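User: Hi! I have a protein structure encoded as tokens and I'd like to know what sequence might fold into it. I'm fairly new to this, so please keep things simple.
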């Protein structure tokens, strides 16, 4: 622990208010913690694709439960979801197949369209749009008119535009109406999405 604390102090002292690259980091590591980079195969971690074979396998009982609920299909029982927070809901919604045939039942049981957590709400709306559950279109338009974060705009506009037909027409009309409330970069991105399928 003392050696690692020295390493952290040296890192902050040498590189504060500046930028470094991987080679700078490895030089400092070798100076302060000789041999440590070799023991953990730092080259594979820094330059290799994906996670190295030596990466520890991570598992979490909670995540396994969420994945099992998504794989089971249907609408999960209230007992299954009772302890879920926003993270579990988001992971569950993202793990469901597209299209998902139980959107009406899921929304009816858990009022996902009324969620106040935008991470959950956008994951839900994206799933619903991909599943052709058009009952969410007014809520999608409401969200797109209220928020300007690209994190939410891109997937929702993208899903509406990808659907074509009425959802795409509604996306174009909504964008024309609220365009000026978006940051110029967001305006360009949404315009690009609309032009890509024109």
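Assistant: Happy to help. Inverse folding works backwards from shape to sequence: for each of the 198 positions I chose a residue that suits the local structure. Here it is:
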């Amino acid at each position: 622990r003392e050696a690692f604390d020295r390493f952290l102090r040296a890192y902050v002292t040498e590189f504060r208010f500046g930028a470094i690259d991987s080679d700078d980091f490895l030089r400092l590591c070798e100076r302060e913690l000789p041999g440590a980079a070799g023991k953990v195969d730092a080259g594979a971690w820094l330059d290799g694709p994906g996670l190295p074979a030596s990466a520890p396998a991570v598992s979490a009982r909670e995540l396994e439960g969420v994945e099992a609920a998504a794989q089971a299909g249907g609408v999960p029982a209230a007992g299954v979801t009772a302890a879920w927070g926003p993270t579990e809901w988001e992971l569950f919604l993202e793990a469901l197949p597209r299209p998902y045939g139980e959107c009406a039942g899921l929304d009816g049981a858990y009022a996902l369209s009324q969620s106040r957590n935008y991470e959950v709400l956008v994951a839900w709306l994206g799933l619903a749009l991909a599943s052709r559950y058009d009952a969410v279109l007014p809520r999608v338009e409401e969200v797109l008119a209220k928020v300007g974060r690209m994190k939410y705009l891109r997937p929702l506009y993208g899903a509406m535009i990808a659907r074509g037909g009425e959802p795409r027409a509604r996306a174009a009309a909504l964008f024309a109406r609220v365009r000026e409330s978006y940051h110029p970069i967001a305006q360009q991105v949404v315009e690009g999405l609309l032009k890509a399928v024109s």
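A useful reference point when you look it over: The chain has a mean pLDDT of 94. Feel free to ask if any position seems puzzling.
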